[in-house]
Amino acid sequence: MEFSSKLLEKAVNEMAQLPGIGKRTALRLVLHLLKQPKEQTQLLATALLQLREDIRFCSRCHNISDEEICDICSNTSREQAVVCVVEDIRDVMALENTGLYKGLYHVLGGKISPIDGVGPGQLNITSLVEKVKSGQVKEIIFALSSTMEGDTTNFYIYKQIKDNSVIISAIARGIAIGDELEYADEITLGRSILHRIPFENAIKNS
Amino acid sequence: MEFSSKLLEKAVNEMAQLPGIGKRTALRLVLHLLKQPKEQTQLLATALLQLREDIRFCSRCHNISDEEICDICSNTSREQAVVCVVEDIRDVMALENTGLYKGLYHVLGGKISPIDGVGPGQLNITSLVEKVKSGQVKEIIFALSSTMEGDTTNFYIYKQIKDNSVIISAIARGIAIGDELEYADEITLGRSILHRIPFENAIKNS
């Protein structure tokens, strides 16, 4: 791409660093900003800079938070001894949206992935293991995505906490509500028949 | 969407103002920036701010440019009396990529579109009409997209310049190279048979 302006080229190149944004899309976004009032660009730039500069993580669960302790961890009406292990803040938001989970979270900040160069040391695993060893935790729920990386991470943590008196569970895998059985993949269908639950339980929350 | 941090919420909301970026995508982009070194966010923010602050437009063709007169307008080896009328810088870049056009451009900055609240006054039309009236221009080529807005804009300009001694042309519409005739829409196919060209001309640039 040949640009008539170095300023434009620089802005497009920086925008195109974002995941899923190619050069054409970046150009479209930058040209859009040029057509809007200056304030919009200033607000965007300031919001990004402030976030990156002042970002804080809850010292207990490592979720993004503006306070030392996040709203969820400091909510005493939640079950303090149940901890759900998730990858990032999006999973916390998704689980919170269900309105059905009343325990706390532990945000790992990623999954163990040798291909992407992410080892256990870069994740918030040590603090989770310490939390369990301190005896404060009654149940750990693994809620990582069911990929090879997710399974590896689960197992890595499992090995370090299994000798403590803690219940270790994982979220249920199965056919999604509303899905047709015939279109489900074999592994999911297989798991959902193996891990079947009493019918009374199944109709409880529907 | 419920956010655990006001800073995060603000950044996501600003990012989601961009066209084609929803809240989910915005969150993904912002979380990506959080995982990258601080410098990346700073470079992006600075590039956007600088562009918006220092942006200049060529005083002749209104294309984005870092100089008073852009590279194309100041290139004396180009045909100074042929002016191609386009909507924005992307069209200039696309035409320049062909390597076949050696004249100058005139960037309107949009199309007349009452629905989007864009009237002729917001576009660079007056300077184009003056350019023609001054007698410097031998040929005007309309290269706006063939939508109702494009046609309206073409016609609006045409009415103001038609009484001058200037050739007024429009880029050829027809079946794209490589396209099958049977899948072409009727209007395009109709135009391409009406506006047929001598075969010798057709094979000249292939």
From TrEMBL, chains A, B:
Zinc finger residue ranges, C4-type: 58-73
Cited SUPFAM superfamilies: Recombination protein RecR
Residue ranges annotated for the Toprim domain, each copy included: 81-176
InterPro entries to which the protein is assigned, alphabetical: DNA_Rcmb_RecR, Rcmb_RecR, Rcmb_RecR_Znf, TOPRIM_dom, TOPRIM_RecR
UniProt family annotation: Belongs to the RecR family.
Function: May play a role in DNA repair. It seems to be involved in an RecBC-independent recombinational process of DNA repair. It may act with RecF and RecO.
NCBIfam families in alphabetical order: recR
Name used for this protein in its record: Recombination protein RecR
Origin species: Flavobacterium cerinum
